[in-house]
Design a protein that fits this description.
Layout (H helix, E strand, L loop, with lengths): L1 E4 L10 H9 L2 E4 L4 H39 L3 E3 L8 E2 L2 E2 L9 E8 L17 E11 L2 E8 L4 E8 L5 E3 L9
Antiparallel strand pairs: 1-2, 3-10, 4-5, 6-7, 7-8, 8-9
Amino acid sequence: MIKRIKAPPNLPKGEELKAKHYCRTDIYQIGTSMEPLLNLCRKCLVILIFISVFSTNLLAQVSELDSLLQNELDNNTTYTIATFKSTRIINGHSVERMQKKDLDFRISHRFGNINSGAYEFFGLDHSSSNLNLEYGLFNWIMIGVGRATYQKTFTGFTKISFLRQSKGKIKINEMGR
C-alpha cells in the first residue's frame, strides 16, 4: 500500500527549511503491510499449478487424437483372412473363396438313417455322395461344378466377393484384393 506524506505543520525553527523542502516535493511511503502482495503471489501460484496439472492431460489427449487421425489417414488395409478354414461348412458354403489359380476336388458323403439297423448297414445303403470341383479364377471370384448321386443331379455355382472384412482404409474399386 502506498501513502502520500506531507511535512508536519509544527516544526522547530531549524527544521522549517526542511519543511519547505517537504512541501515542495511529495514524499511517498510504501506501506508495511505485505498482505496484498502475498495474496497476488498465491493466486499466481494456484494458476501455475492448475495449468501444469491440466496441460499434461491435454498433451496426452492431443497425442491420442494424433494417433487416431494417423490411423484414419493410413493407406494400409489389413484384410481378415481364414474366417473359416474351408470354403464349405458341413453341407453349405462359407464366406471363404479359393485363391487365384487354386483347384479343389471335394468328395462329400451324406448317410441315411443310422437307426435302420444292420440290414441297411446303419444308413450306408441309403447314402448319397457328392463330387465337386472348385477353382479360383481371381482372389475375389470362384466357380465350381459337381455331381450328386441323389437323383443323379449336376450342380454349378459361382461365388463372388464384392466386399471383404478389413481394417483401415476401404478400397471399393479393388473388389476384394
